[in-house]
C-alpha cells in the first residue's frame, strides 16, 4: 500500500485495541472520514480556492493533517529525533509549513 491510498490496511489478525487507545483511534478514524467526505470529488484547483474572506482553503487542513500524521509516524518509528529542532528552523523552513505553521508569532519561536 502507498501513502496515497485511501484504504485502511486489513488488521483482522491484529490484537484487539481497548480502552483509551481504542477511543482515540475511533476519534481519529471519524475525523479522517469527515475530512475525506468533505473534500471528495474536488480537484486540486478547487482545494486551493479561497471561497470566503478567510485565508484558509480546503487544501490547508488536508496538508496540515498529512504533515501532523507523518510527523507522529516518524516519532513513533524513530523517537524524538524525528521531530527535529524547532529552534533551528529557518524562515524558509517556516514558510514551507504555510499558514498553518505560521500561527505562532515570530517572537515566540
Overall description:
This protein has 109 residues and is mainly alpha-helical. The chain has helices at residues 19-39, 44-48, 59-78, 91-97. It starts with 18 loop residues before the first helix and ends in a 12-residue tail after the last helix. Mean pLDDT is 79; it is low at 102-109.
Radius of gyration: 17 Å
Largest sheet: none
Class inferred from helices and paired strands: mainly alpha
Number of strands: 0
List unreliable stretches of 5+ residues: 102-109
Note the overall shape: flat
Mean pLDDT: 79
Helix content: 40-55%
From the structure provided, what is the oligomeric state, counting identical versus distinct chains?
Answer: single chain
Terminal Cα span: 37 Å
Order of helices and strands: HHHH
Q: Beta-strand percentage? A: under 5%
- Total of DSSP H or I helical runs spanning 4+ residues: 4
Amino acid at each position: 500500500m502507498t501513502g496515497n491510498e485511501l484504504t485502511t490496511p486489513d488488521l483482522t489478525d491484529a490484537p484487539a485495541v481497548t480502552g483509551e487507545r481504542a477511543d482515540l483511534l475511533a476519534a481519529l478514524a471519524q475525523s479522517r472520514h469527515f475530512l475525506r467526505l468533505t473534500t471528495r470529488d474536488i480537484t486540486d484547483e478547487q482545494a486551493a480556492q479561497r471561497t470566503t474572506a478567510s485565508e484558509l482553503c480546503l487544501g490547508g487542513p488536508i496538508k496540515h493533517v498529512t504533515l501532523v500524521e507523518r510527523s507522529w509516524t516518524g516519532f513513533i518509528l524513530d523517537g524524538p529525533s524525528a521531530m527535529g529542532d524547532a529552534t533551528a528552523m529557518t524562515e524558509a523552513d517556516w514558510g514551507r509549513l504555510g499558514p498553518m505553521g505560521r500561527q505562532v508569532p515570530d517572537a515566540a519561536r
